[in-house]
Structure formats: C-alpha cells, structure tokens
Amino acid sequence: MSGSLGAWEMIVSGDATLYAIVRLSLAVSLSAVAIAVLIGLPLGAVLALTRFRARTALIVLLNGFMGLPPVVVGLTVFLLLSRSGPLGVFGILFTPLAMVIAQALLVVPIIASLSRQTIEDLWHEYRDELTAMNVGPVGRMSTLLWDSRFSLLTALLAAFGRAAAEVGTVMIVGGNIDGFTRTMTTTIALETSKGNLPLAMGLGIILIALIVAINAAAWGIRVWSEQRAG
pLDDT value at position 146? Predict the structure, then answer.
C-alpha cells in the first residue's frame, strides 16, 4: 500500500528521475519505430505488389520473425556491436543508439508483415483500375500506401507498443546504465529486485497508461476510418 502511495506521489510531484527514464524510453522507442517504418513499409509494399522466386520464403521468414524472442535480437546486436564484432569500431554498444537499433530490428518484421497483408488486400481491390490507368510500380505503391494509411497507422501503433514494453533486448545492448540507458522496463525489473517499489510501480503505472492509450488510439482510428469509408 505504501509503495502504491509513493508511486502516485512520484508521478504527481513530477519526480525528476522517474520522468527522465520515461523520456529516454519514449525517445528510444519512437526512434526505433521511425527507422522500422522507413524499412518495413517499403519492404511490405514490394512484397505485396511484386512476384519473384524467393517471395514466399521471405514472407514466411518475416511472419516467423514477428515472434522472434527479443533476447535473441539483443544477443545478435550485442555480437555485432561488441569490440570483436564487425561494427565494434563505432563504439556504440551500451548507448541509446544501440538500443534504438535493437528495437528497430525487433519491430521491422511486424511493420513489414502487417503492411504487406494490408497493401496486398487493397491491391486485389484496385488492381484493375490502376492497371487500366497505366500506373507504374512507384505510383501503385504510393497510392496504396496512402489509401491504407489508417490501417497502417494501427500497425505502427502496435509496433510502438511492442517496442515500449521490451526489456530483454535493451537490457543486453544498453547495459541498464543509470542515467544513460535505463528505460522504464529495465528500471522496473531492477528496482523491483532491489525493493524500491515506489519507483518501480510509478514506472509501471505510466507504462500501462501508455500501452492502454496506444491501443485505444489504434481502436479509435480504425473505427473512425471505417465510419468515414462507410
């Protein structure tokens, strides 16, 4: 009970440590999703609109990577960025940038797979019209991406929710360094083990509120887009 009261006091009073962790977590997750969008949306569109020999295998691979264990992603990025790894020369292990890279790799399959399915379904509907208008590949891609923007936004919100709730990946590549790479999820895990329940519960409340808000926004956007289409 005292831990819960302490958590609310930290939230209401604007505790500097708590909100610094929240800001870092949001910055890392938003940056990761932005990078994943730049990779995942074009990849999903290409898979939806083109046919090539390895297409089916790539789709199956992406769908499988949607459930990839986060610690495996973290370990892979750790090996790449460590001093003995191919990217160790850049010295970005145990930095926020390493966390962004790891989270981006984690959510790229989600965005690519969901966008491919959305655009492919829309392509079946608009194929005859776009073909008759002699619209080129780039035009088709941009048209379908724009027309499916509300459905794709739902996928992006889902990807952000996955990134914001991640702990294993960022723990491995970020090192959970106090004041530098400590996010909401890693702090909750650490402070709970230390018995510092007010900070852990305060971050937990904020994290739950963010996830609920994201899901509510996704649901609201979908309902609004359906009503508008109807």
Answer: 84
CATH number at residue 71: 1.10.3720.10
**What pLDDT, on a 0 to 100 scale, did the predictor assign at position 193?**
85
What 8-state DSSP symbol labels residue 136?
-
Q: Residue 82 in 3-state DSSP?
A: coil
- For helices 137-147 and 149-164, angle between their N-to-C axes, nearest 10 degrees: 70
Rounded (5°) CA angle 161-170-39: 60
Give the other-Cβ count within 10 Å of 72's Cβ: 14
**Which residues in the chain land under pLDDT 70?**
1-3, 229-230
* Whole-number Cα distances in Å, 19 to 4, 14, 48, 179: 17, 7, 41, 11
> Each residue of 4-23: pLDDT tens digit?
777 888 888 888 888 999 99
- In a domain, residue 64? The reply is yes
pLDDT in tens, 39-61: 999 999 899 888 888 888 899 98
Task: Find the domain containing 71 and state its range.
Answer: 18-182
Question: In b/e form, how buried is each residue of 81-108, taking b as 16+ CB within 10 angstroms?
Answer: beeeeeeeeeebbbbbbbbbbbbbbbbb
Q: Say how many domains are in the chain.
A: 1
Residue 211, domain member (yes or no): no
What would the pLDDT profile of 132-145 be if each residue is shown by its tens digit?
Answer: 787 787 888 888 88
Asked if residue 25 is part of any domain, the answer here is yes
**Rounded Cα distance, 77 and 58, in Å:** 21
SS3 213: helix
Residue 26 located in a structural domain: yes
